[in-house]
Amino acid sequence: MIMLEDTQESIVLELENIGCLKRLSLEFKPGLNIISAPNASGKTTIIRGLSCMFSDRVPPSHVLALDESNGRIRAYYRGDIYEKILRRTPSGEVIAQGSMLPFADPRAIDACVALAETGVVHKITGGSSVFRRYLEDLSYGSYYSAIIDAAQELIDEYGRKLASSKFRDFERLPILLTELTDLHIRREEIQRRIEDLKSAHNGKIQKLREKIDETASALSSEEAGLSQLERNLSLEADREKQLLDLLRLADKSSEIAVNISSGISSSKRRQEMIRREIEKKRRIIDDLRVELEDLKESLRREEMEGPRSLQSLQNELERVNKLIVLKEEEIQRAERFPPDDDEYPGRLVVEVRSEILKRIEWLEIVSGYFQEKYMRRMTSARRRFNSNIRRAFRELGLRGFENIFLDQNFALHVVREGNIRQPIETLSASEKLTISLMLMLAAKETFLPDFPLFIVDELTLSYDPDRFWRIMNYIKERVPYVIVTSLASKPTDKIEISYRR
Amino acid sequence: MVILGSWRESFETTIRELELANRKKEALRDLLDRNRMSRSTYDFLIRELEDEISRLRDHMRVLAKSMNERIGELHRQERLIEGFLAWLELMHVGGEIDDETYNHQMDIFTSGLDATRSEIKQIEEALRRIK
């Protein structure tokens, strides 16, 4: 840590081709260094040149003289030389190379250099009141927030990826499975109906066959009966013929002849009766033959055609089977990336999805971890910052202010006497400058307590001189080197530096 | 007329969902067995299905409990109506109520008893389906 007694030595700054200055050498001594010069004579150039030696946030192009291609800044400190060479490249870019002062810290430009046009002063005078970013940069919270932002960006990216069409098909798998199951149920239903229909058809055929057998048997029996009748008729005709032969031989008036005649008549009647029975039998047989033919035709037709509406059911079954195949293909497509996919060719979506979800989970852990660290750091930074602002105002004894603090949202609140809150933009120019300097000092003491410089560039223009120097003297007690630029009060063409211990 | 309890719709829906979930499991298994689906995808989908089945079974258990309670309530109702019918019979035999009143009351309470018994039967059948 740099103690005040350790820094009882000068910082010598040499500038060559810097801003509007061709060549200049200045010595900064411990205590208050007041650089006075007329307007546009290089006061701000000196501050920029010096700042360039402790913070890389000063763009080299803002430092090198516009009409020069090379420039140099050299600082002597504690017996060592620190030098930075600035060079304009053919493309017009300005690059800086060399060494920085040993206490260099890029954050010092925000906490220890009060320039009217940048930083806190610019913020306050512009009426802005939110200091989250300012504290983030100074407390390195911005590194955490950058990590959190990067993690969140990746989480969003993965989230977008999971919501893309590549994964949407996979998300539809449960629906596709339900549709496939519905098709299976439909197929089983059709198969059951086909089986029922076939069973009913087989029953019908069986009945037809039984009926055919029955009819054939009846026909055969009737035909046998007919044969018997025909035989009986033939026998009866032979008998009649024999009786007629006998009658020719017998005495016509004899009793025998009478009996023979009676026998002939009886035979004729029997023959007639048999003929009628034969006729009846033939009709029955004809009917049975027709019936048998009809039955056989029905059987043939039934066997050929099959059950009615079976065909339409089989067509429906075929259609459902095709749909099942298509659905299975759809499922197969949904579970895998296409072989020509540019990111995951041929890979299983479930595995890629699981990997992405694991990454998201991990990123959320990282984000949560750094969020917590960020919150802790920022809360601690805000508390220390508030405490340092309070102490500075108390020790300076500035009238009119009761409290100045940053709230949980890092918004600046100015509380005047009587607990009246005053919006930043309604403060007077002088009050805005006072608050700016106090905030910067608090920031320096909170985040850069060992940094030995505090630089104020030409803020005296709209300032109450008594209050300004009171503040400068207060800062001088806390910082080894305080450098203030000021407009020369008397006509001069020189840059002059005066010292106050 | 049979008055159905509120359990019926929920029961039928849950049974249907359970059947469908089990059918989906079979379809999945079939896809896996025929190499129509990778083991990883199968595991992912079956896990979701098992979760759904487990949720449905839990719901069914809760439903069965409330159905058992409903049976108890219906049995109490049955005993109450039977008691009232016996009392009505006595009143009628004793001539304390006329035929018209007796017949009217008898009709109302008999149909109430039928409805109660019918619901008991339906719930018991439904519970058998769960087992």
Structure notes:
- The complex is a heterodimer of chains A (501) and B (131).
- Chain A is an alpha+beta fold and 501 residues long.
- Chain A has a domain at 174-330: Helix Hairpins.
- Helices cover 58% and strands 16% of the residues of chain A.
- Chain A has twelve helices and 13 strands.
- Chain A has a five-stranded antiparallel beta sheet with strand order 2-1-4-5-6, with helices on one face. In chain A, strands 7-11-12-3-13 form a five-stranded mixed beta sheet, with helices on both faces.
- Chain B is rod-shaped and about 80 Å long.
- Chain B contains three helices and no strands.
- Chain B has one domain (7-130).
- In chain B, α1 packs antiparallel against α2 (39-93) and α2 (39-93) packs antiparallel against α3 (99-130).
- Chain B is mainly alpha-helical and 131 residues long.
CATH topology term of one domain in chain A: Helix Hairpins
Number of helices of chain A: 12
Return the structural class of chain A.
Answer: alpha+beta
CATH class of one domain in chain A: Mainly Alpha
Distance between the termini of chain A: 21 Å
| Strands of chain A, total number | 13
Shape of chain A: rod-shaped
Find the structural class of chain B using helix and strand composition: mainly alpha
Largest sheet of chain A: 5 strands, antiparallel
**Average pLDDT across residues of chain B?**
90
Radius of gyration of chain B, taken over Cα atoms and rounded to an integer in Å: 24 Å
Output the radius of gyration of chain A.
60 Å
Most residues in contact: chain pair: A-B, 17 and 15 residues
Proportion in helices of chain A? 55-70%
